[in-house]
Amino acid sequence: MKYDFTTIMDRRGMDAIAVDNIPYSDVQVKEGFSVIPMWVADMNFQTVPTIPEAIIKRTEHAAYGYFEPRAEYYDSIVNWQHVRNGVEGLTKEAIGYENGVLGGVVSAMNVLCSKGDKILVHAPTYIGFTHSLENNGYHLVLSSLKQDADGIWRMDYEDMEKKIKEEHIHAAVLCSPHNPCGRVWERWELEKAMELYRKYDVYVVSDEIWSDLTLTGYRHIPTQMISEDAKMRTIAMYAPSKTFNLAGLVGSYHIIYNPYLRERIRKESSLSHYNTMNVLSMYALTGGYSEAGMQWVDELCQVLTENVDFAYKYIREHFEGVEVSRPQGTYMLFLDCQKWCETHNVTIDELQKKGVKVGVIWQDGRPFHGEYGIRMNLALPKQLVEEAFERLTKWVFVD
Ligand SMILES: Cc1ncc(COP(=O)(O)O)c(C=O)c1O
């Protein structure tokens, strides 16, 4: 590999909630155990060097005044979307800056819905959708994903249709690839969903923040590429933040082809007067959306595939009663520990705390609508992933 995915970074004191804010306030990591950050969705790898290089070069010019995004900003996005996702015909006009994907989701919903409206989302659900949409006065209607005979999470189209009809729904969030289930939706699945949305005139916010992180053998299909109708009824959200570990720099973007929706959403997101780009995050994006960035992401996806394969096999071989579907994208595992908890007479709370005590800082899956769920981030050097699973065997999933 050209890039470094094996060095264990010490992120302590370096502005990382992953290691400095343990999400279980009443539990202490026992002495002698290091913190292995496996919760919040950022990575424990150094990003591609062209990103800090671009930022550092820009900081050397010591004036950071008002600015307009450069042509390179838009060109890099157009090129990235073309090469990585096969998108044809994207132009600058359809691209718009968003401070964050979630803010973009909310702005879009403010245009598509009245306050108190119902929005269709799939369950398990990324916690950020729940918080940001409920915080803005929307009600989420959950349509549960169902595992098929091979354990693959699928949309339940009948249930979606029933809920759309009964609850008079006209807006949906589609998470593609899906966090936390790790699905990279197949074309027929997206076609079927978009056909349903067309039938009932449901507008779609397609959150594709994870689109670059697909595991070996899987390819992301942008929702807007499904059909001309899908192109016009979908507001798509992207960011370099998951791809390159840039969440702390802030800087996402939308792609909206429908001119009416685009103008209304831009107006809506302008209202706070906060939704503006930071000059250094512009350089971060152009540094990442480059040839070097592409090679780095290819290598990253190989590393993530190895970690997922290791963890998936390990769980199946060692933790009887813990169920997990093999992810196809993202770097998240979503464990269902119901059988294990019931067999061992342990609550999901107790189980999670046992992990945290030995430094495995995983995340409560209940706010994602997994009753016995735990979300685990695998974007760490393999050595740390192995160490975490050894600790789980020795001290957590014990009889
Ligand atoms: C599906 C999904 N959307 C959005 C976000 C957050 O994006 P942002 O920080 O740009 O609001 C995350 C972060 O984990 C995510 O998983």
UniProtKB/TrEMBL annotation:
Annotated Pfam families: Aminotran_1_2
Record keywords: Aminotransferase, Lyase, Pyridoxal phosphate, Transferase
Cofactor: pyridoxal 5'-phosphate
GO terms of molecular function: transaminase activity
Aminotransferase class I/classII large domain boundaries: 47-392
Highest taxon in the source lineage: Bacteria
SUPFAM superfamilies documented for this protein: PLP-dependent transferases
EC number: 4.4.1.13
UniProt family annotation: Belongs to the class-II pyridoxal-phosphate-dependent aminotransferase family. MalY/PatB cystathionine beta-lyase subfamily.
Alphabetical list of PANTHER family matching this protein: PROTEIN MALY
Name used for this protein in its record: cysteine-S-conjugate beta-lyase
UniProt organism field: Jingyaoa shaoxingensis
Lineage: Bacteria, Bacillati, Bacillota, Clostridia, Lachnospirales
